Amino acid sequence: MDFLLKLLAGAIRVTIPIAYAALAGMIAERAGVVNMGLEGMMLFGAFFSVVGSYISGSAWVGLLFAMAAGALTGLLMAVFAIGFKCEHMITGVAVNMFASGMTVVLLQMIWGTRGKSSTVEGLGVVSVPVINKIPIIRDLIGSVSPLFYILILCTVLLWVVLYRTPTGLRVRVVGDNPFMAGSMGINVYRVQYISMMVSGALAGLGGAYLSIGDIYMFSKDMVAGRGYIALSMVILGGWKPVPVAVCGLVYGIAQSLQFRIQSVSIPSQLVQMLPYAVTIIVLFFAKKGAEAPAMEGVHYYQKGE
Amino acid sequence: MNAVEMLGITKRFNGMPANDNVDFYVEKGEIHSLLGENGAGKTTLMNILFGMYRADSGIIKINGEEVSISSPRVAIENGISMVHQHFMLVDSLTVTENIVLGQEPKKGPFFDLEDAFRQIGELADRYHFKVDPRAKISELSVGVRQRVEILKALYHKADILILDEPTAVLTPQEVDDLFTVLRGLKEDGKTVIIITHKLKETMAVADSVTILRKGKKVTRLPIEEVDEQKLADLMVGRFVDLNIKKKDLRADRPVRISLEDIVLEKNGKNVLDHVSLEIRSGEILGIAGVEGNGQTELIEVITGIERRYSGRITEDGRDITGTDAAGMLKVIGHIPEDRGMRGYISNFSNWENLILGYHTLPQYMTRQGILKTKQIRKDAQEAIEVYDVRTEGIDQPTGSLSGGNQQKLIVGRALKHHNGVLVAAQPTRGVDIGAIEYIHSQLMAVRDSGGAVILISADLDEIVKLSDRIAVIYEGRIAACRPASGFTESELGAYMLGKGDSADEE
């Protein structure tokens, strides 16, 4: 029982950044853009949250930096993928490579190293008094990063916006049939640009968790493929906010298990492979019930353009 | 009073005029048919009215006032709505969500879905449309989807409705329903414009007609002053023979291809359900049916594209069950139902597309597997002349030809190589009258020279006109199979909707 609780508690923490990125990927795809640049957006989020915290001495300012950096990266990708109609996948990969290189350059400029930043003020943990009185739950999220609660807030907010506001309806239509949206006088490009910036900001928050939410510093390429894992969670969650956020747990549990069985005498490489293997296997068996937004990754042209 | 006036409209694409100084007007409260062949500029003209394109020159007046329609938004504000040929609907959303998009009812910052459901329900009732506002688009038939499109226009306060080829995808019964709907709209004071190339429906529903040819206006006439023959001649610019001269059937018509008890299962359902058919030499067998009742699967089985069926197929008594597509092509020529998908490769040149599927024949390929390009190109040159493909030459990419000429090329390829049996699926879909006339005469020529043709078409008129025998397919079963003269049109319609037996009783 104790082992299970610890496993789950660990899994939840591993899942937080993935869930942010998965939500980010979902909102972009709902608006018809395949956000392959999640990895880079997270990386910028992780880096600039440290910068913000370093400059101001407050981790919360760092969080704002992360969102701004993510949103700007989202805007940058939108300019190429939507404005210049570059292939979405390629644009995303370019964003990732750009982020990987740029963060190292900036590390060198600010801290004079190429590997790690200095330690900065972190977000710490919060304990909600009510939750601390409930057994089991207390063990799971009794003391947890504030980003956990912000994540729940974001998930609910996304659901409300997508399904309960005119804006959300328009986003969903743009991803499924931009030509119809255009014929009804909706500004398809504006919807896509804004969605990409929201996507970037969310991914930035996910990145911030890795740095100022966890180890309180930035280290080179610290996102380590989580952006790609998140993209598969978008599919697994069927492009719906709550399932998408929760599906990250699949990877989280596998990762958490991996930490805990490293001492067992299995070759460590095999153990480390576990989270990725589980992700692939789960995707393979995932019911293909949910359908992707029909026009995802397709360039929209206004008539006469 | 004219609801719409367009004066001196000119629009060029890459220097080529799609509309050349066109004058067009529609009176308030009439149903007007905008008639012309593919590429005559009908859709371009209406896209200009709907704000999808800007005209290079010319003015537009709505209800007598000059307006500048710079986008669909402005058109909608001026009471103009367009029902596109390819429906502008999102399958995964409800009827209501599709309709209110752009003008959603709100409660505070939120989308008031319940109020929207109520409003759309009332709107549908008012016009006697049987549409469930909560249904998802993916659950609806094509006819109902079109009604959703019309409701969308009405919700957005349209007074002027433009319908682009509204009957292209409908069954005869659905067409009748649509016409009833349009007449109801007219009674309600709405102005309706239908873009079409079909003569019959222009005669059936329109009050007046404007004819375009090659981007220019030919004439505008009240419907009382025209008939189908006159419309066809004006549209094409020469005399068009609307009647096919059928020679008598030969006495000796041996069975060429026989399907025996074919069953094909897909997703636990028999999409072909014990189908038996005989295709005889010297006749055209028409397969009538509402699309999606197994026609596609039947084509795929006969042409060897689908091989998981049970049952038996024979050619001249020889068992050819389970032969693959390449093998079948040696026996059975194939004009595919979707030319974009199976007919040609868009960026291949004409000479390459003309041998596609036949490229391993000895006249095209050496024994070492090298293409005899010189011979192929020479043959291709002949073929585009014989089959009247209007093209810049054999090196032009087939994708840049007009639909009619693409189809003539595909028909030509099948005619050139077939072995006395031809599967012609939707042979004239999206093709203009001149090409239809030509393709029909070619199919008749195959029949007259002793070939066996199986004709699958969604266009019932085409089936009735060409076929010697007609088989009606419904839910994967052959509901009836008789000589063509043995059906009335309403009987065919009834069988197509699975009500054949009740029609017999009446």
Please explain how this structure is put together.
- The complex is a heterodimer of chains A (305) and B (506).
- In chain A, α3 packs antiparallel against α9 (188-215).
- In chain A, 70% of the residues lie in helices and 0% in strands.
- Chain A has 305 residues and is mainly alpha-helical.
- Chain B starts with a strand and ends with a helix.
- Chain B is built from 18 helices and 22 strands.
- Chain B is 34% helix and 27% strand.
- By secondary structure, chain B is of the alpha/beta class.
- In chain B, α14 (403-417) packs parallel to α15 (433-448).
- Classes of the chains: A mainly alpha (305), B alpha/beta (506).
- At the A-B interface, α7 and α8 of A face α2 and β8 of B.
Task: Describe the secondary structure blueprint for this structure.
The complex is a heterodimer of chains A (305) and B (506).
Chain A: H1 2-30, H2 38-56, H3 59-83, H4 88-111, H5 137-141, H6 146-164, H7 166-176, H8 178-183, H9 188-215, H10 226-236, H11 241-260, H12 268-285
Helix pairs in contact in A: 1-6, 1-9, 1-10, 1-11, 2-3, 2-4, 2-9, 2-10, 3-4, 3-9, 6-7, 10-11, 10-12, 11-12
Chain B: E1 2-13, E2 16-27, E3 31-35, H1 42-49, E4 57-62, E5 65-67, H2 72-77, E6 80-83, H3 95-100, E7 106-107, E8 110-111, H4 113-126, H5 142-155, E9 160-164, H6 172-187, E10 191-196, H7 199-205, E11 208-213, E12 216-222, H8 228-236, E13 255-266, E14 269-280, E15 283-288, H9 295-302, E16 310-315, E17 318-319, H10 325-331, E18 332-335, H11 339-343, H12 350-353, H13 373-386, H14 403-417, E19 421-425, H15 433-448, E20 452-456, H16 460-466, E21 469-474, E22 477-483, H17 489-496, H18 500-505
Helix pairs in contact in B: 14-15
